[in-house]
Structures are given as structure tokens and as C-alpha cells.
Description:
By secondary structure, the protein is an alpha/beta fold. Helices cover 41% and strands 18% of the residues.
Amino acid sequence: xxxxxxxxxxAEDQARPLFRRVLLKLSGEALMGEREFGLDxxxxxxxxxxxxxxxxxxxxIAIVTGGGNIWRGMAAAAxxxxxxxxxxxxxxxxxLNSLVLQDALERRGAQTRVLSALAxxxxxxxxxxxxxxxxxxxxxxxxxxxxxxxPFFSSDTAGALRALEINAxxxxxxxxxxxxxxxxxxxxxxxxxxxxxxxxxxxxxxxLKVMDTTxxxxxxxxxxxxxxxxxxxxxxxxxxxxxxxxxxxxTRKQSR
Length: 256
């Protein structure tokens, strides 16, 4: 039997992926770039390129997007709309984002599947947990569309739920225009302080705007860590490589 040299063992440890399977949560705003609403093709191409690169390294990756980039442009039309109806419209916006992202990924050679919580059989498969896991095991990028399929639940809650259902090691939250989590809104408060590490409970108790309380509670109860970072070129790859960027939210606070 050949002995492994310390240098070789260290190199193997460094090369070993930090995660086996993750769920990437992309805000709708991350897909619109600097536009007021809609989709930015260049930003989507950049995100798709990075996803394909990390997926080719052996990582199993699932994705949930928000719909704010489209729903924001329809906000005026939605005034006075029944809440449940508005939420269903938001789910359809997420389906649209999912199809656009799927197209960008497949043009880069990735195999993908869109699994929708709403029935849109012409463009997506129905969401079935075991089918989703099987797609991931086969090396496909899985995109979960239409949220949970129920009104009154956010896309953040859908992301937490799907991450737990597929036994993901972590949720990666790519945010638009912010480095991570702050103790205030950095766009309004220049003195807002960046917070590199938090527990789920601290986020809930302090009312920090990371994700809704339902999603945070699900993650806390199941010890699922959340990595919050800016959606900037290279950041997805850096987080997956173990580099400490953005904010880590976990059951037990991690030292910086």
C-alpha cells in the first residue's frame, strides 16, 4: 500500500469540494442587472457561465429564482389585486425567469430540468421530490419554478423548503447590490454595519431583512446554513471554494 505524503493529502483536502449539493437562491433583481425591471441578458449570461463552471466540477446544484424583476414592472397593475391572485401572478413570473435561465445554461452545454410547482406541462416537468433528486444525481442543473405553488408563501420560503427536500448542504443567497447582511439598509443608512456571521435566531430576533421568518425558521429547525453574498462575477465560485465572503447564517455562529 502506497503511503500518502502530507503535501499530497493537503492538496487533496484543498481540491475536495466544500459542498456536495447546494441550492442557489437568485433574487429577481439579480437577473435584471442595473435595469429598473425586466431581464439583463449580459447579467444572465454571466450567472449561467459561473453556474456551469462550478457544476462541471462535480457539484450538484439546484436553483430557485425570485420574480421581483418582472413583478416590479407590473406593480401599478397589481394595486388593489386580491393577494392570492397577485401571488399566483408572481409564481408565473418565476416560471418565466426559470425558462430564461434554463436557456442560458443549455446554450453553455449544461443539462437542465425545470420542475414547476404549478402545472405548465408544455414547458416544465411537475415538481416531484424524488425526480428532482434523481436529476441532480445524474448531473443535471435543476431549476425549481413557481415557488411552493401556494399563495402567501415567498420564493425565499420555497428556496428553504426545496433545499431541505433535496438534502442540500447549504443555501447560497445571491443578493443584488449588497455585500451580505447589514444591521440596517445600506442604501438608506450610510452607517449601517456589515455583519459577517449570525445565527438564524439572531436574524429573526433583530428583524434583519435577509429572508422571511418562515424560511429562516425552517432553516434554523433543520440546521441548514445560509451564505448571503453579493451577486458579482466570481462570487458563487468563491463561496463554493470555501472563501469567507458575505455573511454566514448558521445555527451556531461561526467565527470569522
